[in-house]
TrEMBL record:
Lineage: Eukaryota, Fungi, Dikarya, Ascomycota, Pezizomycotina
UniProt keyword S-adenosyl-L-methionine, yes or no: yes
Gene3D superfamilies: Vaccinia Virus protein VP39
Species, as recorded: Alternaria alternata
Enzyme class: transferase
Compositional bias annotation for Basic and acidic residues: 58-67
Any Pfam family: TRM5-TYW2_MTfase
Name assigned to this protein: tRNA(Phe) (4-demethylwyosine(37)-C(7)) aminocarboxypropyltransferase
Gene Ontology MF terms in the entry: tRNA 4-demethylwyosine alpha-amino-alpha-carboxypropyltransferase activity; tRNA methyltransferase activity
Documented EC number(s): 2.5.1.114
Length: 600
């Protein structure tokens, strides 16, 4: 039996904005979960009439491994345009990106299995997500046209009082779109998003079979759990399971649930009467963990640029910049995660704190990384930039001697590991990566990760660095042979510390500036660290308004040229931004870019 439902608005969105729009709809409770997100039909791309009918078709609901970047606060990566000249294309190769599928590949080898490794297992974040988002012809051609996706919503299309649809003119359609986007907090995307509407046909069908291990575990546990609840609490297994997101990530041994896991009305009702750490709920988390081979469960949340801290002498809450980039509001649900973060354990952890903490792992591009989730952030969304570093020709060709790379914001080795791996089989290339990092938990993660990858790592603590600065000689005789030398201190004097580490020193040809939202305070240091006799590169990460990328490129180039002139004192070196890599959408209208600055 079929029933016609009222027309609902469909948002037609460029592929790189899908996650941003989808999350906004989820927060507002206006994502239509009865239909799928589908690619825009080719024969509708040129139509703008509000009368266009976009019908979301129910398709095969079988689970597919999801390589989306849904666990991060940043949006999915976008397909990036290569530089205009052929020489630049050779120097900084273009990768073809399947943004939602999480595949980053060379156009000429698009059939290769390039993806996150099995250590990170995720499933589709919603029943809307289609698995066919970038066909082979797109990958081969490296087409610059961004595919658009149709996202179904539960927002009703305007009707007359008698229930008949209104026919809107172009201005009314534009006004409607602006109101919808404003209500969703997406006004910045008004130029990129269009709207349509449909009157979908819904079929009264049997309940959908649960598609992943977490949902199956939920259904089994909730069946016995809800049987013990009073009948007055109108909760059903079907309501709870169908409103639980299908997306999750496993960072062994932790199951990480998405931030919106409990945002629906049924889950809010359940948690309002049953604490997440009650015996019944703990049994629920335990069954979910067991279903995916995990021993711990946590729920994810964004990592903001500021944290709220309590001053010991006052109950007054104040904002301070989160310079350690520590996770905020990551909520453990099951398992022992170690010491609860305090100002002491965050900034001055002991060996016991490290030993007692939960350490989780991920493997990307064949490289292991590890971190303590209560104390350190991890962004899967940077996998594309990590892969690009691995394949930069400037790291592997045209080299006259061994060299060093510098990462002034090293973290747990997000990018530093890629620099080392790119050249580890070469006689000439990057033989050592010098890292500066102020978060002791990140330093420990970098050290452990290096060992997991069979690299040597030497860490210089504050007292070691003070002795180094006073005596001009390192206390460790094996620094020269280490794959990684990590200075647990601010990078403000990195250009002065490096000459004291070794003699003769390796020439620095690559400097990574991975801090967001801006690394401008380190630009001078980066220029000063480059070898003056060889061509070098500085990779500058910045968050930029999508409309300002070109002007930001010009600003970066001019600023670095001015810094170079000040530092060189007359040496004839020149600066050129040879490539801009758009890594991912950071927020509506804001893109995370990497500016490749060539100095030489």
């Amino acid at each position: 039996m079929e029933q016609l439902s009222s027309s609902k608005i469909t948002l037609i969105v460029p592929k790189q904005h899908v996650k941003t729009v989808k999350q906004a709809l989820e927060r507002a409770g206006q994502l239509d979960r009865s239909s799928k997100i589908t690619p825009e039909s080719p024969n509708k791309k040129e139509h703008t009439s509000p009368r266009n009918v976009v019908v979301s078709r129910n398709g095969d609901d079988r689970a597919e491994p999801d390589r989306s970047l849904a666990a991060t606060p940043a949006d999915t990566p976008v397909a990036i345009q290569g530089p205009s000249s052929s020489s630049q294309q050779t120097q900084f190769p273009e990768l073809c990106s399947d943004a939602i599928g999480g595949r980053y590949i060379y156009p000429e080898s698009f059939q290769d299995d390039f993806q996150l490794e099995d250590q990170i297992r995720t499933y589709q974040s919603s029943s809307h997500t289609t698995t066919t988002l970038c066909d082979s012809s797109d990958r081969v051609s490296g087409s610059k046209e961004q595919q658009r996706m149709c996202i179904p919503t539960s927002i009703l299309y305007p009707q007359h009082s008698d229930g008949l649809e209104r026919i809107l003119n172009a201005q009314e359609t534009s006004d409607l779109k602006l109101r919808v986007l404003q209500d969703l907090g997406l006004s910045a995307l008004s130029q990129d998003v269009s709207i349509s509407h449909d009157a979908p046909v819904t079929t009264l069908a049997p309940r959908r079979t649960n598609r992943n291990p977490v949902h199956k575990a939920l259904e089994k546990s909730l069946t016995s759990f809800l049987g013990l609840l009073p009948s007055s609490q109108a909760l059903t297994v079907e309501a709870l399971v169908s409103n639980f997101p299908e997306g999750y990530s496993v960072y062994s041994p932790m199951l990480l649930l998405p931030h919106n896991a409990f945002s629906s009305a049924p889950w809010k009702s359940l948690i309002a009467t049953h604490s997440v750490n009650s015996d019944a709920m703990i049994s629920l988390w335990q069954s979910m963990a067991k279903a995916v081979g995990a021993t711990h469960v946590a729920i994810n949340s964004p990592i903001p640029l500021s944290t709220r801290t309590t001053v010991a002498s006052s109950a007054e809450m104040t904002n301070s910049e989160n310079i350690l980039r520590s996770p905020v509001n990551l909520t453990p649900l099951y398992g022992d995660f170690g010491s609860t973060p305090t100002p002491q354990t965050i900034s001055n952890p002991t060996a016991t704190d490290f030993a007692n903490a939960l350490w989780v792992t991920a493997r990307q591009n064949g490289i292991w990384q590890t971190w303590a989730p209560l104390y350190t952030m991890f962004s899967r969304g940077n996998v594309r930039e990590k892969a690009r570093i691995l394949n930069l020709p400037t790291l592997t060709t045209g080299l006259d001697t061994a060299s060093a790379a510098v990462d002034l914001y090293a973290g747990i080795g997000y990018f530093a590991f890629s620099y080392r791996k790119s050249s580890q089989a070469l006689e000439k290339g990057i033989k050592q990566v010098l890292c500066w990092e102020i978060n002791p938990w990140s330093v420990e993660g970098l050290r452990r990760g290096a060992e997991m990858n069979k690299w040597t790592c030497r860490v210089l603590k504050q007292e070691d660095i003070l002795r180094l600065r006073q005596r001009g000689q390192p206390d460790h005789s094996d620094l020269d042979d280490a794959d990684f030398v990590v200075l647990e201190t601010s990078n403000e004097a990195a250009d002065l510390d490096y000459p004291s580490l070794r003699s003769p020193r390796l020439p620095v040809r690559h400097v990574n500036l991975g801090l967001l939202p801006s690394s401008k305070l380190s630009w001078r240091v980066a220029v000063a660290m480059l070898d003056t006799k060889r061509q070098g590169w500085i990779h500058v990460h910045e968050n930029v308004n999508v409309k300002d990328v070109e002007s930001m490129k010009n600003e970066v180039e001019k600023t670095f040229q001015d810094l170079l002139y000040t530092i060189d004192g007359g040496l004839e070196r020149r600066v050129c931004v040879v490539h801009v890599e758009r890594v991912k959408m950071y927020a509506p209208g804001v893109v995370h870019c990497v500016f490749d600055v060539c100095v030489g």
